[in-house]
Specification:
Layout (H helix, E strand, L loop, with lengths): L10 H20 L18 H11 L9 E2 L5 E5 L6 E5 L5 E2 L4 E2 L6 E2 H16 L6 E3 L7 E7 L4 H7 L2 H6 L2 E7 L10 H11 L3 H9 L12 H11 L7 E4 L4 E3 L4 H8 L2
Parallel strand pairs: 8-9
Antiparallel strand pairs: 1-2, 2-3, 3-4, 5-6, 7-9, 8-10, 10-11
Helix pairs in contact: 6-7
Length: 267
């Protein structure tokens, strides 16, 4: 399965660059030739960073490539995309590009090596993010863990997850809500306006309950909190809601039953 990742620049630039990247990959696929059965495989060469970088910049000049570096996959270089938490892989000879997921299978279960690479980076970003304008639902008793949840009032699964907050809090989980209205960049950002109204109200938590129940709110200009949180989520690779992160940087896309989350948290 081909896996194209979001590029986290300013949201409009990110979407534009990803469209270019998808088109470029599609066009390249059309021009690929199938090797004959008897064609010999090229022996693995030592890493040729200059060639890899030159080839990427020639074929995809619109993409802000970083410097290729050794990866945990033997024979492949990791190439970061500037402004994005993700990376792609290029063969050491600089001749082949890989855009799919790679798993290490030497242990008891497969490990996504890209996720493994990004976890500490995400954990640091989450730990250092200013939560003064986040909606925090504290644990009812002793705090055993914290999760960060990017939510959207127009999302049915977010509404369902919202109903699990009491269970999570009672189990010792602190829940940090961050706004991620998916229509932020659209021409009619209904959810963005609603969430801005919620975050700017005198009682954001009560207003959020009402918003999930279908009530609308007028946008206010109290701060840029909602847009800032949306951009922060994009920098972490959020592209759907609810999107959950654990303190160690583990990413969990989609709503999860309380018992599943508690198991992942070791509670």
């Amino acid at each position: 399965m081909t896996y194209i990742v979001p590029i986290t620049l300013e949201a409009k630039e990110r979407i534009y660059i990803m469209k270019l990247f998808k088109i470029a990959v599609a066009l390249m696929a059309l021009s690929l030739s199938v090797p004959s059965i008897g064609q010999a495989l090229v022996p693995q060469a030592e890493a040729n960073v200059d060639r890899a970088q030159a080839n990427l910049q020639r074929i995809y000049p619109q993409i802000p490539w970083g410097t290729p570096a050794p990866s945990s996959v033997e024979g492949w270089l990791m190439v970061p995309i500037i402004g994005s938490p993700e990376a792609i892989y290029v063969s050491n000879d600089g001749e082949h590009l890989f855009t799919g997921k790679v798993f290490r299978i030497s242990g008891n279960s497969p490990v996504d090596i890209e996720e493994e690479r990004m976890m500490p980076e995400r954990a640091e970003k989450l730990a250092n993010y200013d939560l003064s304008e986040a909606l925090i639902y504290p644990a009812s008793s002793e705090k055993k863990a914290r999760i960060y949840v990017f939510t959207d009032v127009s999302c049915g699964y977010c509404r369902r997850f919202h109903g699990q907050l009491d269970e999570l809090n009672d189990a010792g989980v602190e829940v940090v809500y961050l706004a991620y209205p998916r229509d932020t960049q659209s021409r009619q950002p209904t959810a963005y306006r609603t969430m801005t109204g919620v975050w700017c109200s005198r009682d954001p938590k009560g207003s959020l309950n009402e918003a999930f129940a279908g009530e609308s709110f007028q946008a206010a200009n109290c701060s840029d909190a909602v847009r800032d949180q949306y951009n922060f989520g994009s920098s972490l690779g959020v592209n759907s809601t609810p999107h959950i992160f654990l303190e160690d940087g583990t990413k969990i896309p989609g709503a999860q039953p309380t018992e599943v989350l508690l198991q992942q948290l070791g509670i």
